[in-house]
Amino acid sequence: MSAWLDHVIVLSLAIFALAMLLTLYRLFKGPSAQDRVLALDYLNILGMLTMLVLGIRYASETYFEAALLIALFGFVGSFALAKFLLRGEVIE
């Protein structure tokens, strides 16, 4: 791996960490439940992107598989939360 790519990866991880901190603030401070659900969904996306960048950095397929699982569970969780906020129940 080149030095340039290593610096870009470290910079992107720092930016993702900052975005996660700002999203956590919105998750706890959010004025409405919809804002909190969107913040949780965005945390899922940031976690998945962090795992993908770490997979590139360490050249390991395990990180890519973990990112796929985070994306899958994040989608299902967001769908369940949206359905709960809409109807008040998840299972009909």
From TrEMBL:
One of its GO terms (molecular function) is sodium:proton antiporter activity. One of its GO terms (cellular component) is plasma membrane. It comes from the Bacteria. The chain crosses the membrane at residues 6-28, 40-60, 66-86. The keyword Ion transport applies. It is a multi-pass membrane protein. Pfam families: MrpF_PhaF. Keywords: Antiport, Cell membrane, Ion transport, Membrane, Transmembrane, Transmembrane helix, Transport. It is found in: Cell membrane. The keyword Membrane applies. InterPro entries: MrpF/PhaF-like (IPR007208). Its main location: membrane. Signal peptide: none annotated. Belongs to the CPA3 antiporters (TC 2.A.63) subunit F family. This is K+/H+ antiporter subunit F. It comes from Pseudomonas eucalypticola.
